[in-house]
Amino acid sequence: MRYSANLGFLWADLALPKAVRAAAKAGFDAVEIHAPDVPAAELRTVLERTGLPLLSLNTTRGPEGAFGLAALPGRNMAAREAIDAAVDYAAEVGAQNVHVLAGLAHGTAGHRHFIDNLSYASARAAPHGIGILIEPINAHDVPGYFLTHTEQALEIIDEVGAKNLKMLFDCYHVQRTEGDLCTRLAACLPKIGHIQFAGVPDRGRPDRGELNYAYVFACLRELGWSQPLGAEYRPEGKVEDGLEWMTALAPEDVATEDVAQGGAD
Ligand SMILES: O=C(O)[C@@H](O)C(=O)CO
Ligand SMILES: [Mg+2]
Questions:
Q1: End-to-end Cα distance, the chain
Q2: Residues of the chain with pLDDT under 50
Q3: N or C: which end of the chain has fewer CB within 10 A?
Q4: How far is the CA of 137 from the centre of ligand 2 (A)?
């Protein structure tokens, strides 16, 4: 397995260039960020020096507590400015994807605005070879967030119909909302652009908690997933002191036949 350090959670106290260097030193194969805090050229330089690809960055969360703008009725102008800013930054820094945050919304109006803004984002990103991601987020952590379920994400992706629009499948959120992870991963796989993980239920280290990631990673290996998996968890103390999971979760000896086939009998 290859891993990406999510710098919104790991080394979040460091400015991005330092955080990228820390991730490279710790043995990560890629990085991903939430919000850029330095000019794109500066981040690009450190990515080139370390050789780490930048898998994704987010559109802005907007005002305090908003968690994104793209599904909000009456905020279309701000949503598109956020998409423009994120895509321009991604193009300059060489990022592979932009994650468009939906925000707190519901119903048909939310759906219609999200579809319109995702069509805009996909068309805006495509000429740069950039993908657009949407992520189902669990309702315990972000009550009222528009996109909560993988099925809903698949329907939206189908309706927009853009080749570069995919799902960010965060195992932590999907486990808290739906469970049945290996089955969901198999069902969503063709529409997944990136995968993240964290311990459940506290979003701590992935080798703690109710979820057996050695098993989940073995499922992913059997499904043929080879992209770096995004470590998006809250470290306990220094990140470097809690990275045993990088080897402990290697899926070598785990048998997955039953679940990968949707369960026996
Ligand atoms: O799971 C999450 O919270 C993130 O992947 C994210 O991008 C929202 O900030
Ligand atoms: Mg996530």
A1: 31
A2: 260, 262-265
A3: C
A4: 7
Q: How much is the pLDDT for 85? A: 98
Backbone angles phi, psi at 238, to 5 degrees: -70, 135
Domain extent listing, the chain:
3-260
Instruction: Give the pLDDT confidence score for residue 111 in this predicted structure.
Output: 98
Residue type, 234: R
Classify 3-260 by CATH class.
alpha beta
User: Which residues surround ligand 1 with Cβ inside 6 Å?
Assistant: 34, 58, 99, 135, 137, 170, 173, 196, 232
Give the CA diameter of the chain.
Answer: 56
What's the pLDDT at 257? 61
Q: Report phi then psi at 200, rounded to 5.
A: -120, 135
210 an active-site residue? no
| CA distances (Å), origin 41, targets 94, 115, 182 | 10, 32, 39
Alpha-carbon distances of 240 from 23, 108, 128, 219, 234, rounded to whole Å: 9, 45, 35, 27, 12
pLDDT tens digits, 91-117 = 999 999 999 999 999 999 999 999 999
Whether cis (ω within 30° of 0) applies to the bond prior to 201 is yes
Which residue's CA is the closest to the ligand 1 atom numbered 2? 137
